[in-house]
Each structure stands twice: as C-alpha cells, then as structure tokens.
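Today's session is about reading a structure prediction critically. Students often jump straight to the picture, but the first step is always the sequence itself: look for stretches that repeat, for charged clusters, for runs of hydrophobic residues. Only then move on to the predicted structure, which in these notes is written as discrete structure tokens rather than atom positions. Here is the chain we will use throughout the hour.
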Amino acid sequence: MKRHAGRGQGKRAPTGAAEEMVVRYLGAQGIARPRDLAVDGVSREHFRRLAAKGRIVRLARGMYALAEAELGEHESLVAACKAVPHGVICLLSALRFHGLTTQAPFDVWMALPRASRVPSGGGVPIRFAWFSGAALTEGVETHRVEGALVRVYGVEKTIADCFKYRNKIGLDVALEALRDAWRLRKGTADELWRFARVCRVGNVMRPYLEGLA
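Below is the predicted structure for this chain, in token form.
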C-alpha cells in the first residue's frame, strides 16, 4: 500500500471505508498515525472509533497498531522512528537492536543534530544524544522492521559511540559490546578503528582494540 507523507486533509471518506482503509494500512505497515492517511480522507475520529471497537490499539499519542498484531521487541524503535523520522537509533538501543547487550532500556536512545530542537517524541519515551559532523552522518543503516523503516547506527559505529558516551552509559557496557561483537564476528577491526577515529575516541579504544588481536 502506498504510504502518504503529506499532512493535507483530503475529502472525508465514508466511515466504513475509512476504517477498513486504516486496518489494511496497519496490516501492511505495522504502525500508523492519522496523518499517514489524511490525504485519503481518513480522520483521527476514524482511528478513535476503531480503538473503541477494540480493532486497533493506541501505542502512544497519535500512534496505533492492530490489536492482534505481534509487533515484537522492536516496537518501541519503530514508534520512535515514526515520531522522530530524522533521528537515528543509537547507543543502548542500537546495542539491543544488534544483539550486543542484555539490557533493555526503557527509553529509546536517538541521535539528533547538535543544533536541533528537542522533538516531543509523540508520547514515545525517547532519550536524545546530540551528534555533529561525521559522528552524526557516518555509519547509519536502514532496516525494515515490522513493516517500517528504522534508521540505526551499525555495530562498529555504535561501539565507538558507547566509548564516547562511556560516562553516561558505563565503560563496562562499551567493553561488553566490543567483546561480544568480536566474539560473534559482528564487527571488523578495520571498521572499529575507522569509527574510533570518526568519534574521536581512538586513544580511549586503542588498548582494548589491540587486546583483541
């Protein structure tokens, strides 16, 4: 189903047709906001009606999924990326995504440009980290998760970020991620060195990287 990014309101669709349109869209995309279907004449009231009938559930402010949907452990990441589409999943949340930590952070960690205003998050609990330059733009991967696109930093970039933010998340977390990535062959030495330089933590990571050899 074609996804609509516009905010404009089209001609109001009949209630029954609009509700079925919402259900089909959610079946294809997993998560939706009323504005995703606004140009098709679907309103917030149609979403509220479906929620009252128990056919869909409200995940956060202005964000819905099918009641029977099995969204899985990455539901919060999908919701965060829909709420803040220019953000990038980072740090603890990126480690969790890549299977490099047993921690399950309540907040979704997202990177934003340093000069950005703090978005509302649409009711999703998000903790922002402020990046700039190559540290913001390098190492971004796009994955399709539960029908939605999620922007997340790759393994080696995430590990370098964890060393950079070690005072916030703990050096032990960064070291565990580095060891697990190496053991599971999820990262290469060349890429770890590259992102250590990008994040300006080469001297910090050097003894640990040399210890992997």
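Discussion point for the tutorial: The longest helix spans residues 15-29.
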